[in-house]
Amino acid sequence: MFTGIIEEQGVITAIDPSGDGVRLAVRAPLAVSDAQRGDSISISGVCLTVTDQTPEGFTADVMKQTLDMSTLGTLAVGSPVNVERALAAHTRLGGHIVQGHVDGTGEVLEVRPGEQWRVIRVSLPADLAPLVVDKGSITVQGVSLTVSDVSDADASSQWFEISLIPETLEVTTLGALTPGDRVNLETDILARHVQRLLRFASPDGIPSTEEGGSR
């Protein structure tokens, strides 16, 4: 479990084939300062498990499904990544509840700079569009953000916008985004649960708890 508050920018130092997946090595000295083998660390929004570590970084295995669902398959040695350690129970929840389970990717459509803010418009896969609302939470490249605008439900193509403050632009990789870049997206877990619950609802709108509709 994560909060979407990025702790440091790491760097990919090695990518080695491993079956139909890869083994990534990431330079992230802060993240490994108190890490152990088996711990979870988010890399640009993807929850990975530490398999080995040094004082400067760690390695993690990435399966094919993760490579297909996220932008991790496009990484190269030297690529910067957003890094966050798993949430500790005694700390403040500064962002929102983030699982590190990427729902899909979007494409940066537009970057509008301002004096202090920068607005980024990102394409939204049609199946994720119902889960994203204006002023709601979304995770982009592992960063917890608030949706500042969203396309109409009947629009031919779906998108959302995020407004980035100078701190976010400086301490995360989002400041380097340009049109055409792809980003990892994770929608709000609460919205996903509601969507799933409604799919099991009976015609009268009351969710069924057992097969056959008894409740």
From TrEMBL:
Residues 1-96, 97-198 form the Lumazine-binding domain. Lumazine-binding repeats lie at residues 1-96, 97-198. Catalyzes the dismutation of two molecules of 6,7-dimethyl-8-ribityllumazine, resulting in the formation of riboflavin and 5-amino-6-(D-ribitylamino)uracil. It holds the Pfam family Lum_binding. This is Riboflavin synthase. Gene3D superfamilies: 2.40.30.20. Its EC number is 2.5.1.9. It comes from Microbacterium aquilitoris. InterPro entries: ATP_synth_asu-like_sf, Lumazine-bd, Lumazine-bd_dom, Riboflavin_synthase-like_b-brl. It is an enzyme of class 2 (transferase). Pathway: Cofactor biosynthesis; riboflavin biosynthesis; riboflavin from 2-hydroxy-3-oxobutyl phosphate and 5-amino-6-(D-ribitylamino)uracil: step 2/2. NCBIfam families: PRK09289.1, ribE. PROSITE patterns: LUMAZINE_BIND. PANTHER family: RIBOFLAVIN SYNTHASE (PTHR21098:SF12), RIBOFLAVIN SYNTHASE ALPHA CHAIN (PTHR21098). It catalyses: 2 6,7-dimethyl-8-(1-D-ribityl)lumazine + H(+) = 5-amino-6-(D-ribitylamino)uracil + riboflavin. One of its GO terms (molecular function) is riboflavin synthase activity. CDD domains: Riboflavin_synthase_like. Keywords: Repeat, Riboflavin biosynthesis, Transferase.
